[in-house]
């Protein structure tokens, strides 16, 4: 562990500095900030907000230009893609001046009879924050159930209304976000949290004729490392209740038309084995990693479900492969759509398997990609017999685009593309992927996007990373990013280990005892950008949010001179202390990601990289920290502690040109502001800091 700064005297901060004013000499780690109810805590955060506002004052004009430039590039009136269900076609519309959408429907084939059935803009009028947790139409499309969070703390209220214009009724409060209908049109399933906000139970709620009865417990998960979730097969035959930790899962099935039937365990959990189930009449399809690290796909005859161990009857469809990870399976009555990821190219693919009744393979086709690298995903397909697939495509240079693919004719029809306005068009951007060499020789993909006319010159660069939970940073288009690119910045993504960008092996190589690989990969990506002449080594800023904040913070502890600045959004930086407190939300479920600190070796590993436990007297670059008062995933005190501690490192070097800033949103949760205009304005402030750090604040778009 790096040496800590001396604590025998107060740091020489200006007397009006928040870290000096609120310092407790007997608590140099600032743990007192964890006492949410103490008035001094909110006073400290508000004082830090005022300091941040003062620092940003010279940039206020830039913030407004970025904000209004973003609005000018975006189509503010947004109409969602229409989805035909059995009886109605549904879609959302957001008015140009609205923060939230209104949901509409019309009878199939009757677009002239459109009617609104859920107005979130109106519902948000009474709250500073509104987040829709889940929305579920009854199978007969006569009733709508939904969950709302109006605080940002991820606890939800359940509502029900008769469509289209019945009065909303509150059915339950303080529940989880997920809900689902059984196929009897009279039963809702929902989740409840335990004291640590873990979804630990699934309940059945009768709602005949809009009147709620008494909830009945269906399934409770006693293991604190497991979460419960619920779903339904596209065949509409089975409700699926899934219990899962970070590396083990177990599914329970209930006939969707008989929701009072006790759940049946599909296969008992086996430590380290993950599986997911889908269904076609007569057969289940099991995507699993049992003796198959990169996952394989098997099938099980429905009649064999009652066997002592159904796995004995699993029959292979797609074997384990070294070069690809199977990520998902979607079943239709004609066959399957497989999502798989190429390890070598770090690229997702969709594969269509058409099957005969005896499972003979009629068709095996990998769908073409619009460009490399890109994102490709299967869109909503509520009908089991659907033979026209909706495909969502996107890249760093391609706005979100929806196509419909006719499996019979092969025809592709453009349904919708996100419109982009302004002087910088998507076709004027250039994207490439380079490969960095990490400390152990591993090749790390790095994606870079910039203005095409600036190719061939090293540019000031924003480097983004995440690297946890197997999450994938597939390419995404950003309207806000155009404001940075137009002013001459490049945007790069380090696809570090710990994420899933190169499949399951990539994830496993960046978790637990291998977590340090993520930090070395991030620094290697930074160096490769400079070595290949893409980035100006004096002007590279880093960005990380949540677990990405851990990635960037730990990298800065290793190499504080590598970046000119960093933006840390709700950063997970007090890793050891958080993981040692099982009473905090989500902690116990994270043991399989970071390690259980009750084990000495795991505790040592976490302590060796936990950012707040490895600060040294060597100061960091300029930092903009962002937190949220109602955040239950990364509590507000984590960025607040880091802010205060960084202030105390070499305080004589701190000035307006080398600031440590903290801004805490006192009305939001982990995802920040819920209304789109406030979120865009917050993003403009963040981008103003980045442009200032990169020396581009005076550039015009």
Give a quick rundown of the structure.
Helix content is 19%, strand content 33%.
Describe this structure in words.
This protein has 701 residues and is an alpha+beta fold. Helices cover 19% and strands 33% of the residues. The protein is built from 13 helices and 37 strands. The strands form 8 sheets. Strands 30-31-33-32-34-35-36-37 form an 8-stranded mixed beta sheet, sandwiched between helices. Strands 1, 2, 3, 4 and 5 form a 5-stranded antiparallel beta sheet that branches. Strands 6-7-8-9 form a 4-stranded antiparallel beta sheet, with no helix packed on it. Helix 3 (60-73) crosses helix 5 (479-486), helix 3 (60-73) packs across helix 13 and helix 7 (516-531) packs across helix 8 (547-558). The longest helix is centred in the first third of the chain and has 18 residues, at 39-56. It is globular, with a radius of gyration of 26 Å. The relative contact order is 0.11. Residues 1-8 have low confidence and may be disordered.
């Amino acid at each position: 562990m790096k040496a800590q700064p001396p604590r025998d005297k107060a740091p020489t901060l200006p007397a009006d500095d928040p870290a000096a004013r609120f310092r407790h000499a007997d608590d140099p780690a600032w743990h007192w900030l964890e006492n949410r109810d103490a008035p001094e805590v909110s006073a400290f955060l508000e004082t830090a907000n005022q300091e941040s506002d003062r620092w940003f004052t010279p940039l206020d004009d830039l913030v407004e230009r970025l904000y209004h430039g973003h609005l000018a590039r975006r189509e503010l009136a947004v109409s969602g893609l229409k989805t035909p269900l059995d009886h109605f076609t549904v879609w959302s519309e957001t008015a140009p001046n609205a923060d939230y959408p209104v949901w509409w429907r019309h009878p199939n084939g009757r677009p002239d009879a459109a009617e609104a059935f859920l107005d979130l803009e109106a519902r948000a009028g009474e709250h500073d924050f509104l987040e829709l947790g889940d929305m579920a139409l009854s199978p007969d499309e006569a009733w709508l159930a939904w969950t709302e969070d109006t605080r940002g703390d991820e606890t939800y209220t359940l509502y029900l209304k008769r469509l289209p214009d019945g009065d909303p009724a509150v059915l339950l409060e303080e529940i989880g976000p997920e809900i689902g209908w059984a196929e009897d049109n009279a039963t809702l399933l929902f989740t409840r949290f335990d004291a640590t906000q873990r979804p630990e139970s699934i309940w059945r709620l009768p709602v005949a004729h809009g009147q709620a009865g008494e909830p009945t417990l269906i399934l409770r998960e006693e293991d604190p490392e497991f979460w419960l979730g619920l779903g339904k097969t596209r065949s509409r035959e089975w409700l699926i209740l899934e219990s899962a930790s970070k590396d083990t899962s177990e599914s329970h099935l209930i006939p969707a038309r008989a929701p009072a039937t006790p759940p049946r365990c599909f296969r008992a959990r086996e430590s380290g084995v993950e599986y997911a189930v889908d269904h076609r009449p007569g057969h289940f399809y099991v995507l699993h990693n049992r003796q198959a690290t990169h996952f394989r796909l098997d099938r099980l005859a429905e009649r064999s479900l009652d066997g002592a161990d159904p796995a004995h009857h699993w029959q292979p469809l797609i074997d384990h492969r070294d070069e690809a990870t199977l990520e998902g399976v979607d079943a239709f009555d004609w066959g399957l759509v497989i999502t798989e990821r190429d390890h070598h190219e770090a690229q997702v693919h969709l594969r269509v398997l058409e099957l005969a009744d005896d499972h003979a393979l009629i068709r095996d086709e990998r769908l073409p990609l619009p460009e490399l690298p890109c994102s490709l995903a299967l869109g909503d397909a509520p009908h089991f017999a659907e033979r026209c697939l909706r495909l969502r495509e996107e890249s760093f240079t391609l706005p979100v685009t929806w196509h419909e693919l006719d499996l019979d004719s092969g025809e592709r029809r453009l349904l919708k593309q996100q419109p982009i306005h302004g002087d910088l068009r998507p076709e004027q951007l250039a994207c490439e992927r380079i490969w960095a060499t990490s400390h152990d020789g591993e090749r790390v993909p790095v994606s870079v996007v910039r203005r095409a006319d600036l190719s061939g010159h090293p540019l000031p660069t924003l480097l983004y990373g995440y690297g946890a939970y197997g999450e994938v940073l597939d390419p995404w288009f950003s309207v806000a990013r155009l404001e940075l690119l137009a002013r001459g910045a490049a945007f790069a993504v380090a696809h570090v280990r710990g994420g899933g960008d190169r499949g399951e092996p990539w994830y496993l190589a960046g978790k637990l005892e291998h977590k340090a690989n993520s930090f070395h990969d991030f620094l290697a990506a930074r160096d490769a950008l400079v070595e290949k002449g893409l980035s100006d080594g004096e002007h590279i800023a880093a960005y990380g949010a949540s677990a990405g904040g851990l990635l960037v913070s730990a990298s800065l502890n290793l190499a504080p001179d590598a970046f000119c600045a960093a933006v840390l959004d709700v950063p997970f930086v007090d890793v050891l202390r958080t993981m040692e407190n099982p009473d905090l939300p989500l902690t116990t479920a994270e043991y399989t990601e970071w390690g259980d600190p009750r084990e000495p070796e795991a505790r040592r590993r976490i302590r060796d990289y936990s950012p707040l436990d490895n600060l040294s007297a060597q100061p960091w670059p300029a930092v903009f920290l962002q937190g949220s008062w109602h955040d239950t995933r990364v509590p507000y005190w984590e960025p607040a502690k880091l802010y205060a501690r960084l202030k105390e490192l070499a305080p004589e070097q701190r000035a307006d040109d080398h600031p440590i800033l903290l801004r805490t949103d006192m009305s939001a949760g982990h995802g920040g502001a819920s209304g789109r205009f406030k979120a865009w304005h917050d993003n403009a402030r963040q981008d103003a800091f980045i442009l200032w750090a990169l020396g581009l604040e005076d550039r015009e778009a």
